[in-house]
């Protein structure tokens, strides 16, 4: 057991360079932010496979073993229990902003997604808009753009699924090298359109299940808005953990040119 812990510690302690396929940007260069936008987007595109040497997992699909969302104060009077969640679409993010304030040790990212598809197993029991319901089984939620079909013909409609990230860092020294780690995060999620489909509601009663699914979809903005902060906290922590896995393996001097 001690040997296993020692090897795990050694794997984290050893400093690694960024993969050769990752772009580096000159920290003091005049176009650092613009270069970093391209570099981060390029790195994220590669995460359809794990990059184990720097601790980065696959993010497309992003796998979330379990997640619990507490009941809201409005229409969602039920606890949302999810397991075996997979999220498709994160590797297709289009980054429009990357600000790194080295003095304040903060990172700000803005990213747009064409579509995110959440597949999961759910377990719900409660009320939505005062309607009682219960069920457990497979489900899907799609965060999409209601203008997407128009963009097949026109190129000027922007993506509308926005994630705004803020990360607060601290600097520390390990093995004579300086590293960053995230100590606080903030994520704001702004989907334009959400569609839900929950199978096996009311133990498979199709008529009742279809009605509740319709209620979810007719009121998707209000349903999501009621528990939005809980989703932001959950996914903010997920991405913080991923970011920290990279930062624990790549020293500050190796992150930039």
CATH topology: Bactericidal permeability-increasing protein, domain 1
CATH class: Alpha Beta
Beta-strand content estimate: 35-45%
Largest beta-sheet details = 6 strands, antiparallel
Rg value: 21 Å
Which class do the helix and strand fractions yield? alpha+beta
Strand element count: 10
Low-confidence stretches: 1-12, 149-159
CATH superfamily caption: TULIP domain
Overall body shape: elongated
CATH arch. level architecture: Super Roll
Distance between the termini: 39 Å
The overall average pLDDT, rounded, is 89
Commentary on this structure:
Helices cover 29% and strands 37% of the residues. It has helices at residues 2-13, 32-45, 148-151, 206-218, 220-247, 252-255, and strands at 62-69, 76-77, 80-88, 94-101, 106-113, 116-128, 131-144, 161-174, 177-190, 193-198. The two termini are 39 Å apart. Residues 1-12 and 149-159 have low confidence and may be disordered.
